[in-house]
Amino acid sequence: MSNTQKLVIAALLTALVTVATMAFQVPIPATKGYINLGDTVIFIAALLLGPKYGALAGGVGSALADLLSPYAAWAPFTLVIKGIEGFIVGYILYKAFSGESNLKSRVAAMALGGLWMVVGYFAAEVLLYGTPAAIVELPGNLVQASGSALIALPVVAVMSRINVFKSVN
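-> structure tokens emitted (169 positions)
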């Protein structure tokens, strides 16, 4: 698959990250934040397209969701945090596991990417609201990361069975 084709798929997945982030939200009243499904699409994009395009879909798609919602002040943090999350997932799979996409490599990649997201938002929340608020938000971010991985796993497994990964990489 050419770089142009990968870029087109990345653009579509970027839009899907935005939609998944905005369409399904579980509010966290204590912090006025929310749990969403955007990370599911970030994980799929990074596992499918690798670190560069995973970062693009994650960072831009999630930041765009913030800009289109009442969370615009979070967009710069989100761009960096979610972009690095997508990069980590793709990098772990394609560098540490040499592109071998199996259950072990996918879980490891998503666990490390999700952990980064949790740590990144914790740091941003400490900076903006202080440690107590960041601690309150921590369980929601953990649920979001783990839930997104659990949803992404079967999707990626099906995509692997129909050879989507072989045609893209």
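DSSP finds seven helices and two strands in the chain.
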